[in-house]
Design a protein that fits this description.
Blueprint (H helix, E strand, L loop, with lengths): L16 E7 L5 E10 L4 E10 L7 E2 L7 E6 L5 E6 L6 E6 L6 E2 L7 E6 L5 E8 L26 E2 L3 E2 L4 E8 L5 E3 L7 E6 L5 E6 L12 E6 L5 E3 L6 E7 L5 E7 L10 E6 L5 E3 L7 E2 L17 E2 L5 E8 L2 E8 L4 E5 L4 E8 L4 E8 L2 E9 L4 E4 L5 H6 L6 E6 L5 E7 L10 E7 L13 H8 L3 E6 L8 H5 L8 H16 L3 E11 L1 H10 L7 E5 L5 H7 L3 H8 L7 H6 L13 E6 L8 H12 L4 E6 L6 H4 L2 H19 L1
Parallel strand pairs: 34-35, 34-36, 36-37, 37-38, 38-39
Antiparallel strand pairs: 1-2, 2-3, 3-4, 5-6, 6-7, 7-8, 9-10, 10-13, 11-12, 13-14, 15-16, 16-17, 17-18, 19-20, 20-21, 21-22, 23-25, 24-25, 25-26, 26-27, 28-29, 29-30, 30-31, 32-33, 33-35
Helix pairs in contact: 6-7
Keywords: Aminopeptidase, Hydrolase, Protease, Serine protease
Pfam families: PD40, Peptidase_S9
Protein name: Dipeptidyl aminopeptidase/acylaminoacyl peptidase
Length: 659
């Protein structure tokens, strides 16, 4: 019998992430991606794994080595797998014969290649590539150039994901397997995202924003590209933000996800179906007040992706995912308007792949005590069978805390939902310190999913409280829009109401030992809280916003995000400052730990620096931890050792002030 112990931060090195299941065309096989962190090399390694769906067998590993292999896609004839790998430094596309043998590299792009999509005849692969207008798609093996000054003429010149813009645009190319010929099928000074290939092989669906002035345009159109003539038809006509477009099997319909930006980035995504013959565009979820897609906040899965729509074999039925009430729900619908839940449970579905004829779906599911595994759903019977047990060995050694769902009224009567997680080894007659966690976004959602940070804190003896305040997804359009223009007001009341509810409802909470932490928007709210109450004895703010005035000009999304969320710009500095936690620094009495990444372009580190220096100058108790070569995604996909050290800093701070 294996010894039982409590979870540790470094158990991240033992856990494996299972994502991106892809069912074979005949429906009997499945390939997926398994990712783990390597402690010695301080890197992530991802490999393709293979399953026989109707046999009770373990998965087999298909790729090996100290590399990342991902985005597997079956050829329509079922004989090959295309995937992306960095085995030769830059990510390129490879093709693996399912009968065996070595994978063949098919691209040699100077800046890498990604997102492979097969032609219906299995003879060609479309993919995405990043190029300058005059740059060749074939690498010339020239030596790296010396760094040069960056000339900036546009406002969208950097991003947290890609760094500083280098003059390249995302384009679409096609590789022919028989001839090894490659051709670029898009052009121009805009980014195009490859979506899907039509069943007749004549069209590609791409998405993009084909306008000259893009600094003030926040559109993503669905575009039909004729492969031979390069003729482009715009389906959505600059009406909103749309993507994840997929043809029905008969080519009659095109389904996709998006919205018309009625509430800017707080708008709920909806499911749309376009009839290619009649050119009628219909919103299938218009009457449903729910967010289509996966809006869940997590800190564990690597490379998870949920397709916008999965078409049935009849080309009239389909499946899609929606975020509701702290869960992601699998829905069944038809082009005639029927919509019913197909898998409704306390769960986070973060991946899915359908075999249209058998109506079997491989779903990737996580729950608070299940980091994530693959399951086979038989839609017609509702039978759900677990396919993988990737983390079973560790979970037998380490009991996880199962949170209790809570619901309570805010100060204005608004109903708010959340969870309370008891500490590991909980004893009824003991008192425990509580840590309040606040998610980022703010338009995101805590859910019934595995959260390593929360489980690690519970294992250290803390009660963990986490809620979805106004501004969160999962509770309708009015709820998610409430926070805009109201930062630090109603959302603050919701969060403090959660604390009040917890300490008055659960007598095992020591209300003299309360801590608070959060990242991004959650970091903003942590900063706001310590400037407006002395109730918390310790706080940790992560990748936070402290000053909306400077954030406006330094963040990669600053000028438009601030206008959308705070509803003010640099012509109204008073409003920006009123909503800035830095303005209330003199009120701070809570010891505050400040965690920030050096290369965070979303919430640049100057936000942390301003806060740290201001508090330090005023004699407040504070400390700043800076993570080099890290961006806004440190807690989710940063360097493995930094992720562990981040958790250790958080726990040490709370240990010092709450224990």
């Amino acid at each position: 019998m294996e010894e039982v112990r409590f979870l540790k931060a470094e158990d991240l090195f033992e856990l494996k992430s299972v994502t991106d299941p892809q069912v074979s065309p005949e429906g009997e096989r499945c390939v997926f991606v398994q990712t783990e962190m390597n402690e010695e090399k301080n890197e992530y390694f991802s490999h393709l794994h293979y399953l026989e769906l109707n046999e009770n067998k373990q998965a087999h590993q298909w790729t090996f080595g100290d590399t990342r292999n991902h985005s597997p896609r079956w050829s329509p004839d079922g004989t090959k797998i295309a995937f992306v790998s960095n085995r030769e430094e830059k990510e390129q596309i490879y093709v693996l014969d399912t009968s065996g043998g070595e994978a063949r590299r098919i691209t040699s792009c100077p800046n890498g290649a990604k997102r492979p999509i097969w032609s219906p005849d299995s003879k060609s692969i479309a993919f995405s590539v990043s190029l300058k207008p005059s740059e060749s798609i074939i690498a010339d093996d020239k030596e790296e150039k010396e760094p040069e000054p960056i000339v900036v003429d546009k406002m969208k010149y950097k991003s947290d994901n890609r760094g500083f813009w280098d003059g390249r645009y995302e384009q679409v190319a096609i590789f022919e397997l028989e001839t090894s010929k490659v051709r670029i099928v898009t052009s121009g000074e805009t980014d195009y995202r490859l979506e899907s290939w039509s069943p007749d092989g004549k069209w590609l669906v791409i998405s993009g924003n084909p306008v000259e002035e893009q600094d003030f345009s926040f559109i993503s159109d669905i575009l039909l590209l004729n492969i031979e003539t390069r003729e482009v038809h715009n389906i959505t006509n600059q009406e909103g933000y749309f993507n994840e477009a997929i043809f029905s099997p008969d080519g009659k319909y095109l389904g996709f996800v998006g919205h018309k930006r009625e509430y800017q980035n707080a708008t709920l995504s909806k499911l749309w179906v376009y009839h290619l013959e009649t050119k009628a565009l219909t919103c299938m979820t218009d009457e449903l007040d729910m967010m289509v897609g996966d809006a869940v906040v997590g800190d564990f899965q690597q490379g998870a992706h949920v397709p916008g729509i999965l078409w049935g074999a009849d080309s009239e039925s389909y499946y899609f995912l929606a975020s509701e009430n702290g869960n992601t729900v699998l829905y069944y619908g038809t082009v005639h308007g029927e919509i019913y839940p197909a898998l409704l449970d306390q769960q986070h579905i973060y991946g899915m792949s359908l075999h249209p004829l058998s109506q079997q779906i491989v779903v990737a599911i996580s729950r608070p005590t299940l980091p994530g595994e693959l399951f086979l759903l038989e839609v017609t019977t509702g039978k759900l069978v677990q396919l993988t047990r990737t983390n079973e060995s560790l979970l037998k050694q380490v009991p996880l805390s199962k949170p209790e769902m809570i619901q309570f009224p805010s100060s204005d009567g608004l109903s708010v939902n959340g969870w309370l997680m008891k500490p590991a080894g909980f004893q009824e007659d003991e008192k425990y310190p509580l840590i309040l966690e606040i998610h980022g976004g703010p338009h995101a959602m805590y859910a019934n999913t595995y959260l390593h940070e929360f489980q690690t804190l519970a294992a250290k003896g803390y009660v963990v409280l986490y809620v979805n305040p106004r501004g969160s997804h999962g509770y309708g359009q009015e709820f998610v829009n409430m926070v805009r223009g109201d930062y630090g007001q109603g959302d603050y009341e919701d969060i403090m109401a959660a604390v009040n509810f917890a300490v008055t409802t659960f007598d095992f909470i020591d209300d003299e030992k309360l801590g608070v932490t959060g990242g991004s928007y959650g970091g903003f709210m942590t900063n706001w809280i310590v400037g407006h109450t002395d109730r918390f004895k310790a706080a940790v703010t992560q990748r936070s916003i402290s000053n909306w005035v400077s954030f406006y000009g330094v963040s990669d999304i600053g000028y438009y995000f601030t206008e959308w969320q705070i509803k003010a710009d640099m012509n109204d500095v008073n409003t920006l400052w009123k909503h800035s936690p830095l303005a209330y620094s003199k009120n701070v009495t809570t010891p505050l730990l400040i965690l920030h990444s050096e290369k965070d372009y979303r919430c640049p580190i100057e936000q942390a620096e301003q806060l740290y220096i201001t508090l330090k100058r005023q004699g407040k108790e504070t400390r700043m931890i800076r993570f080099p070569d890290s961006n806004h995604e440190l807690s989710r996909s940063g360097k493995p050792k930094f992720r562990i050290q981040r958790l250790e800093h958080i726990m040490a701070w709370f240990e010092e002030y709450l224990k």
